[in-house]
# Entry
Amino acid sequence: MKNVIQTQFTNDLKTQIDAKIAELEALFQGKLAALNADQRKLYGTINEQNKLFVNKVRDYKMNQPHLSADDVNWDEFENDYQARIFLETRKEKLASLVYQMESTKILHDYDNYNDALDDYATPNTKKEERWLVLQKK
# Structure
């Protein structure tokens, strides 16, 4: 299978992509946390069942506020909830892009590797000499 991918990234497109990534990084500056391994263990993540629990508590607060605890800062609760939803949906979009980028890179790597194999499989004097030189290094 030859040249399984033909994607081209012009210098202009690369510059535009890099600028957009830099713009995103600037927009997120100071708004994201980077937990270390111990902090990730400490805070953990809530599983799907606990997300349903949070959603149910929020639903009760919205529809039957008299049943909600007075000692919860509900404004902060809602801010956290909305931020989580926002970050989760954007994370999924970016994860999809990363997956596609990784897949595209794999195809380009495949093409490069197979072309390199073809190049070294072609018997001619210069290539044999080059191979011998590489072997001596």
In short: The CA atoms of residues 121 and 127 lie 9 Å apart.
